Amino acid sequence: MSENTPFYITTPIYYPSAKLHIGHAYCTTIADTIARFKRLAGYDVFFLTGSDEHGQKIQQAAEKEGVTPLAYVDRIVAGFQELWRLLGISYDDFIRTSEPRHHELVQNIFQRIYDQGDIYKGEYKGLYCTPCESYWTELQLDEHGNCPDCHRPVQEVAEEAYFFRMSKYADRLLDYIQSHPDFIRPVSRRNEMISFIEQGLEDLCVSRTSFDWGIPVPFDPKHVVYVWFDALTNYLTPIGYLHDKETFRKYWPCDVHLVGKEIVRFHTIIWGCMLMALGLDLPKMVYGHGWLIVDGAKMSKSVGNVVDPIALIEEFGADAVRYFLLREITLGQDGNISRDALIGRINSDLANDLGNLLHRTLSMAEKYRGGVITKEAAQTEFDASIEEMAAETVRTYTAQMEAMELSPAIRTVWAFISRTNKYIDETAPWTLAKDEAKAGQLDSVLYHLVEALHEISILVAPFMPGTARRIHAQLGFADDFDAARLVDIAHWGSVPDGHTVGTAQQLFPRIEVA
Ligand code: MSP
After folding, report:
1. Antiparallel, parallel or unpaired: β 6-14 and 93-96
2. Helices 69-87 & 309-316, crossing angle to 10 degrees?
3. Where are the alpha helices (DSSP H) in 370-432?
4. Which three-class secondary structure state does DSSP give residue 510?
5. Backbone angles phi, psi at 37, to 5 degrees
6. Residue 7 vs residues 3, 32, 56, 177, 242: alpha-carbon distances, Å
7. What is the pLDDT of residues 434-475, one digit of tens each?
8. Which residue puts its alpha carbon closest to atom 10 of ligand 1?
9. 307: which of 315, 393, 408, 442 is 20 to 30 A away, CA to CA?
10. How far apart are CA 174 and CA 169, in angstroms?
11. How far away, in angstroms, is 98 Cα from ligand 1 center?
C-alpha cells in the first residue's frame, strides 16, 4: 500500500421505523473499527452510514402517530446520530435518503436506465412483505405461506409498475461472482448467491403506486421508486457520482459494503445488476456478517429481549461495549451475547489485564523514578523477548486487521498484554529497586513497559478509541492522538529518553457481580 491509498467502506442505511438495537450497533461498530484501522495504517478513508427513510412501513408508522413521514423520521434519525456519537462512530458522511442530493441522484439513475431500455412498464402481480419491503413468489414463502425472512403475513398486490431488466444481467453477474472470489464473503454467502442466480433471475419491480412516501419516478410521478432501488444508490451519492467526478473516481468502486447476512442478496444481485446497467464497476467486496442473538434467542419486541445499546453504553461505557462485541463474535458468524459474558470480559480483559498493566507501570515509574523514563539503560535477560514479541505483534495484528479478522487481532494484542504483565513478574522491579547496582536494569524495565503500553495504545485505538486516548494521555504524551499512525510503532524505541509519564487513573472499574 502506498500512503493515502483510498479506502471506501459503508454500513447499511438503517430503517428509521424504530430505535436501533444492539444488532445495528454491532454492524456499525465493525465498520468503524475497520475505518479507524485503515486511517491508522495511512489510507485515505471514506466511511459512510445513514438512514433509509422511504417506504410504506415508515408512511404507516407516521400515520399512526398523526405526523408527516418526514417529521417522524427526523426524530428517529436524530436518535441514530446520537447513538453513533455516544458509541464513537467516526463516519465521514451520513446520508439520509430524504435529502435533495439523494433524490436528484435516484431520479437521474432511474431516467438513465429507462432511457437505455433497461427499465420498462408492465403489470406487477405478487406478494409483498411490508416490514421487509420485499417481494416474494409463492415458492419462496415459508411453510405457513408467510415471508421467508421475517415470517409475517405477505399481501397480494396487483398494479401497473416499472420493471428493471435484471434477467439481462444474470449471466454476466454469475461470471463476475465466479471470477472474483473476494466479491462476496464469507464463502457461505457466496455459495448461497450463486445458487440463487442459478435458479434464474426475474426482472425486478422497481416502482410502486400504493403509497407516496418515496422518490417519484421522474417521467411518471404517480409512481414512487421501489425502496431498495432507492436505498442501494445511497452509496453513490456522497462520493460525488453526479457532481464531483474526481472524488467519485477516487472512492469508487467501494472497498467494502458491510451488511448483515440477510441483505447480501440485495447488495450483490440487485445492486450488481444496477451497477452493470450504469456501466460502473462492482464493489470490491460485500461482506455479510452474522446476527447477534441474546441469551440464545433472536431479539424481538414480542419476546421483550431487545437490547438497547444506549442503556449498555450508559452502564458500561462505549469502549467496553465495542470491545465486547468485537472480541466475542467471530465476524461472519452468528454470535450470542449476554450480560454475564460482557461483565466477564470487562473484569478479566479490561480491568485486570489492560487496566492493571497500565496502573502498575505508572505507579512504579512514579515511585522509583518520579515518572521519568530513561532510554539506553542496561538490559535485563527478559528485554529481548519483549522487543521481539512487540514487533511480531504489530506484524500479525496488521495482517489480521487487513483481512478483517477483528477478534483474532484483539487476541494478538491481548497475548502481548499478558506477556508484558508476565515481564513485570519476571523482572520484579521491586527487587531491582532495592539494589543500587541494578538501577540501570530497573530503568530498562520501566522503559520497556512504557514503550509496550505506547504500542498497545495505538493497537487498541480502532476498537476502543476513547480508551486509547486515555492511555496515551496517562503515559504523558501530549501530542495529538488522532495523528498517531501504525508506522510510529514499527520500530522499538519510540518513547524518547527523559520522557515523563503522567499519573495513573483507573481505566476500567471492576464490576461487582451480586
Ligand atoms: N434499510 C435496509 C438496508 C438498506 S442498505 C442499502 C435494512 N435496514 S435495517 O435497519 O432493517 O437493518 C440494517 C442492518 O442491521 C442489516 O444489515 C441487518 O443485518 C442488521 N441487523 C438487524 N438485526 C441484527 C442482529 N440481531 N444482529 C446483527 N445485525 C442485525 O435492512
Report:
1. unpaired
2. 30
3. 383-402, 406-427, 429-432
4. coil
5. -60, -45
6. 11, 13, 34, 21, 20
7. 999 999 999 999 999 999 999 999 999 999 999 999 999 999
8. 14
9. 408
10. 9
11. 19
